Amino acid sequence: MTSYNQSIFITGGARGLGLELSKKYLGEGFRVFAGIRQSNRVTDQLENLYPKQYIVIQVDVSDDQSVTEAAVKIKKHADQLDVVINNAAARFKETLLSLDAIDIDTSLKAFNINTLGPLRVAKNLADLIKKGEMKVWVNISSEAGSIANCQRNSEFDYCMSKAALNMQSALLQNEWKEDQVKVLAIHPGWMKTDMGGERAPLSPRESAQEIYETIKKNKENVDKSTFIDYEGTPYPW
Fold first, then answer.
1. pTM check: above 0.70
2. 168: which of 123, 151, 161, 162 is 20 to 30 A away, CA to CA?
3. Burial of 106 (0-12, 13-18, 19+ CB in 10 A)
4. Cα–Cα distance between 148 and 139 in angstroms, integer?
5. Closest CA to 143 of 94, 67, 200, 216
């Protein structure tokens, strides 16, 4: 195994925030395992620029077998992970439908990706994060998952899937407290991505830079999980 001081696994790493987080952590000397469904020109370039440091892991977080196989591939290269960032998520156009028009099948897809996807990752990589030095587990959440701050009257599947992800974060913190793993739920801000649209005020690169610093500043205190935004400001559950 090639030795690097620290290693990270990032899902949804092919574009948007996941891609920018990969670039940031590569620049900081991490070995990056990029969980992606399909390679593209940029991921191919990163593989050429960072041979052995940037490792593409084909994974579909909505599929049990795919996540299990991805974990096996990671474990061939590393016996520990310092950081895991569950970034892969979906927001379907049907989420904007009114209550009487909700498509339950689409809602199930949203939960399968946004909520159960990170849980599958946790199930398969718990042993590696417990052996890491930093031991930080990050679920990319959303302000849409805040019950206390809820202002919407629609977007049921997306909001509910992120609220459930927040509960997952709290449960994982309780589960891993004795192992000194810190669990963070982070709202990444409204970004110019396929999901956020062009009107968003924040670029994925700006968010990634802030998230990197926020993770470093909030990796202690394992007594309870933490819900914060990309700048580290506490967010109401």
1. yes
2. 151
3. middle
4. 19
5. 200
Burial of 120 (0-12, 13-18, 19+ CB in 10 A): buried
Amino acid identity of residue 35, one-letter, is: G
Neighbours of 110 (CB within 10 A): 24
Structure-block tokens of residue 79: 């016996």
DSSP the chain: ----S-EEEEESTTSHHHHHHHHHHHHTT-EEEEEESS--HHHHHHHHHSTTTEEEEE--TT-HHHHHHHHHHHHHH-S--SEEEE------GGGGS-GGG--HHHHHHHHHHHTHHHHHHHHHHHHHHHHSSS-EEEEE--GGG-STT---SS-HHHHHHHHHHHHHHHHHHHHHGGGT-EEEEEE--SBSSTTT-TT-SB-HHHHHHHHHHHHHHT---TTS-EEEETTS-B---
What letter represents residue 215's amino acid?
I
Q: Which residues of the chain have pLDDT under 50?
A: 1-2
